[in-house]
């Protein structure tokens, strides 16, 4: 199968032309190494996962880096953050663009080390698993619930791996290992139950007290675990929008997963039929759409400035896209039949936000395409490739 072309490639090349160091982070197996080695095939490649390489670099960092006078790709850089200070000295002396390309997985530790050593010297990009536009052509235009169950990790689509085997191994080999490296988990079984409960709360504002009671651990432990999942690119929070919007609004974030395939595996959902009939079908569809918007920002090298809105009267907008001071409200439903009532939250938000708010966008799973009361209604999967737009 032909190698998948990643949408981030132009942003990565552009960053390497402007900064002496480019750092690319993201979850394990999202394709970071393949993307970098394909884009910078002329550069020497070093993996600090290799014990011998890591020992050599740790024992004599200056001597190690002197082997690469024109720079190199350094993978798993979080394994030896002390190298960053020596890289700083090298690029401060020479500053050729794109000299070092760094790849790492542990977000918080790596970002802290970068802020200390490479501030102003590196561009930082984040690569998530495949966007739907990046899927091989023979896999595009599929039922969105098939895509939800399959997930987006490149190896699943490139090698045709069995989903259940992949996620079982991924969970044990990467997720649990990375989380354990961040926090002290005393009872792994309780943590595994927590993952399942969290998957069942996709698209919800997290109730720490309820989760702590269900699991028999403290609310602070739940907060610590969620923080570790965010740091390991397992889960992410969508913040509430309340800026200059009034007091009667929800201000707590919602929780989503960085990959729907992992979420459905945790929930025991193995088929399209199970996914499309599950009580969480709406939340999973919403997670899929939100991920695509999130990825579109990251792949362009932009920070995702995304929110949701909910007031105390139950009016809700699933997604608010903020660009400078312009707001685009986006509604999301898994339904195949459109109902004008679906636009209630968007209409309410537009009145509340005033001139800052652009016309709305409503994404669903049905055949009709129209514009109603200034809101464009469309099926983002109808063209065979995921697409969404701003009016």
Task: Describe the protein's architecture and organization.
- With 391 residues, this protein is an alpha/beta fold.
- The chain has 16 helices and 13 strands.
Please summarize what this structure is.
The protein is of the alpha/beta class.
Question: Characteristics of this structure?
Answer:
391 residues, alpha/beta, six-stranded mixed beta sheet, five-stranded parallel beta sheet, 16 helices, 42% helix
Task: Summarize the SSE layout with pairings.
Layout: H1 9-18, E1 21-25, H2 32-39, E2 45-47, H3 51-59, H4 61-66, E3 72-75, H5 83-94, E4 100-103, H6 107-117, E5 122-126, H7 144-150, H8 154-158, H9 163-182, H10 188-199, H11 208-215, H12 219-231, E6 235-238, E7 254-257, H13 260-266, H14 272-277, H15 281-299, E8 306-310, E9 316-323, E10 326-332, H16 344-353, E11 361-363, E12 370-372, E13 375-378
Parallel strand pairs: 1-4, 1-5, 2-3, 3-4, 10-11, 11-13
Antiparallel strand pairs: 6-7, 8-9, 9-10, 12-13
Helix pairs in contact: 7-13, 7-15, 9-12, 11-12
- The average pLDDT is 90
Give the radius of gyration.
22 Å
Count of beta strands:
13
Q: Hey, roughly how much beta strand do the residues contain? A: 15-25%
Gross geometry: globular
Report helical residue fraction.
40-55%
Largest sheet, strands/sense/barrel: 6 strands, mixed
* Distance separating the two termini: 37 Å
Low-confidence stretches: none
Order of helices and strands: HEHEHHEHEHEHHHHHHEEHHHEEEHEEE
Which strand order does the major sheet show? Answer: 8-9-10-11-13-12
Class from helix and strand fractions: alpha/beta
Question: What's the helix count?
Answer: 16
